[in-house]
Write a structure and sequence with these properties.
211 residues; alpha/beta; three-stranded antiparallel β-sheet; binds adenosine monophosphate
């Protein structure tokens, strides 16, 4: 099964993609995590991407499409994969279609902008493995320490309030049109984000057909 998770920054698409990844035993591919890792390692494209990410803008389609092509060619994607944060523009979606990749479902996690603005300040991410937490809704077992790898959890630079506003504007302008794109293909399923992560997970698992 090949799935796409769509949603505004902070809507919880990464968290839900992780739940489905564990349930279906298929990898979760987060272009944001791949780009953050590249930026941390100072690779050429990582440094280019960093400037856009820090400003709340999108990284160029060429760079992201290249990254994605390489990643889904890997062995672990043979039985399916979950795209978390890709595509984010119509040209990226068209590139995926042009690659001959068949997408089964596109799950949109819908959360109001006002809720997102409140929530994002509590988000933390592991600086080692990229795992995502929230101090209130999805805390790590020990505060500030990643459950998965033991490294430190930190606030993402692009989760500062001014950058979040920019990212939301970018989402509405560039990414939201994908809802129409996939609606027309009959693949869009909208899940209303709930206050409790576990409640959203139930709805998400039902949407992909896992009970
Ligand atoms: P995320 O972790 O999904 O919120 O992504 C963090 C940042 O990485 C975004 O704000 C963009 O700057 C960049 N990014 C991630 N995925 C993409 C994509 N598919 N296209 C363009 N930029 C992306």
């Amino acid at each position: 099964m090949n799935l796409i998770f769509l949603g505004a920054p902070g809507a919880g698409k990464g968290t839900q993609a992780e739940v489905v990844s564990e349930a279906l035993k298929i990898p979760q591919i987060s272009t944001g995590n791949i780009l953050r890792e590249a930026a941390k390692n100072g690779t050429e494209y990582g440094l280019k991407a960093k400037a856009a990410m820090d400003a709340g803008a999108l990284v160029s389609d060429d760079i992201v499409i290249g990254i994605l092509k390489e990643r889904i060619a890997e062995e672990d994607c043979r039985e399916g994969f979950i795209l978390d944060g890709f595509p984010r523009t119509v040209p990226q979606a068209e590139a995926l279609d042009a690659m001959g990749i068949k997408i089964d479902k596109v799950i949109e996690i819908n959360v109001a902008d006002e809720t997102i603005k409140q929530r994002v300040s509590g988000r933390r991410v592991c600086q080692g493995c990229g795992a995502s937490y929230h101090i209130e809704y999805k805390p790590s077992k020990t505060e500030g320490v990643c459950d998965k790898c033991g490294d430190k959890t930190v606030i993402r630079k692009d989760d500062q309030p001014e950058v979040v506003l920019e990212r939301l504007a970018t989402y509405h302008e560039k990414t939201a049109p994908l809802k129409d794109y996939y609606e027309k293909q009959g693949k869009l399923v909208t899940v209303e984000g709930q206050e409790e992560v576990a409640d959203t997970s139930k709805l998400t698992l039902a949407a992909v057909g896992v009970e």
